[in-house]
Amino acid sequence: MLSLHPCMHCSASFSRPSQLLQHQRSEHAHQQSEQISVRGNKPRHQQRGLLYACEDCGLRFKDAPSRNRHQTLMHYSSEGREEEGRG
């Protein structure tokens, strides 16, 4: 079965994490900045409980394991790890 990677902002799904990341960056970059806009006394991302930010792209998640899974799938490919290890 093909594993799909759904977009959290729309109904799009992708077969590869890299495709999802490219989609999010091109289609939803403005929504990342909107998530941290102030609403009341707390930023919107805190009201939603999205307290864990990806250090690479700024996307926010409700818990550390979700953020870590995102970082592993989207930013640290096996090729990237191999490149880092050679040095």
TrEMBL record:
Pfam families named among the record's database cross-references: zf-C2H2
Superkingdom assignment: Eukaryota
Keyword terms, alphabetized: Metal-binding, Zinc, Zinc-finger
Biased composition (Basic and acidic residues): 78-87
Ranges for domain C2H2-type: 5-33, 52-80
Keyword Metal-binding: yes
Region listing for Disordered, in residue ranges: 18-47, 65-87
UniProt keyword Membrane, yes or no: no
GO molecular function annotations of the record: zinc ion binding
Protein name in UniProt: C2H2-type domain-containing protein
